[in-house]
């Protein structure tokens, strides 16, 4: 339960306020927090969303294991396994969100600065 709370807390702190700030305060969705915050906030928002989603997947998998292997004590989730799962979930979420840190940048259109993603630099690394 605590892992999902942490993920939802990250969403409440990093996703909701800044998304609403852009939409409700400035109707043209301008970005006023600077270039560093653009990259960092995109990265933190990505971590929060991935972490929340994958924590629910891990919880669902644990519940499935508890139902399917109810008579197999060796299949139960121990504290050590739970710590590994939590660390793996965090590591996977950070890894998945890392490209957002690299592609988020300030773009100016019509004199209005916006925090957008520019994936053209990353396309060179994608085969095919």
UniProtKB/TrEMBL annotation:
Its main location: membrane. The chain crosses the membrane at residues 7-25, 31-61, 82-104. Gene3D superfamilies: Rhodopsin 7-helix transmembrane proteins. Keywords: G-protein coupled receptor, Membrane, Receptor, Transducer, Transmembrane, Transmembrane helix. The keyword Cytoplasm does not apply. It is a multi-pass membrane protein. GO terms for cellular component: plasma membrane. It comes from the Eukaryota. Residues 1-128 form the G-protein coupled receptors family 1 profile domain. Pfam families: 7tm_1. InterPro entries: GPCR_Rhodpsn, GPCR_Rhodpsn_7TM. It is found in: Membrane. GO terms for molecular function: neuropeptide receptor activity. Belongs to the G-protein coupled receptor 1 family. This is G-protein coupled receptors family 1 profile domain-containing protein. It comes from Ancylostoma ceylanicum.
